[in-house]
Amino acid sequence: MASEEEYLEMLAAARKEAPPVVASGERFRPPRPIIVIIGRQTHISNFREIASGLNRDPHLLARFLSKELGSPYFITEESKKLILSRRIDPQLVEARLRKFIERYVLCPVCGRPDTRIVKVRRGWALKCEACGATSPVPKI
Fold first, then answer.
1. Nearest to residue 54, comparing CAs of 103, 124, 5?
2. Which domains does the chain possess?
3. Tens digits of residue pLDDT in 87-135
4. The pTM is what?
5. Which residues are paired to 83 by β-bridges?
6. Where does the chain show beta strands of DSSP type E?
7. C-alpha 132: how far from its chain's center?
């Protein structure tokens, strides 16, 4: 049986050997949006990549951003980007994307991104695959 000191030494050695992402506990890094303003429109060039990285329906994410930013949108199928119909500050778009991740992707109980949105009675809930928690989410 190992003493507490031996255990702490082994734990420190294991943390040194582990890759930095595993050691810090952070493994979820959503893609940063590539935002280009063309004329009076704001284009998010890697929108499909963001939606698939978050494991969410692109239309759900587009609806959320449209409502939060107060701009009509359309998704181009051939180039896989989201176009918002007005000029929007890129920092504001990134802030709203973080808000979406906090509300509709990360589990409020354990903080992990291993979630999916499920229908519960008349509303929607965030079901965590990691800890099993079910939390209601606001309607978009």
1. 103
2. 28-105 (3.30.30.170), 108-140 (no CATH)
3. 999 999 999 999 999 999 998 888 888 899 998 888 899 998 888 889 9
4. 0.77
5. 43, 74
6. 35-38, 41-44, 73-76, 81-84, 115-120, 123-128, 134-136
7. 19
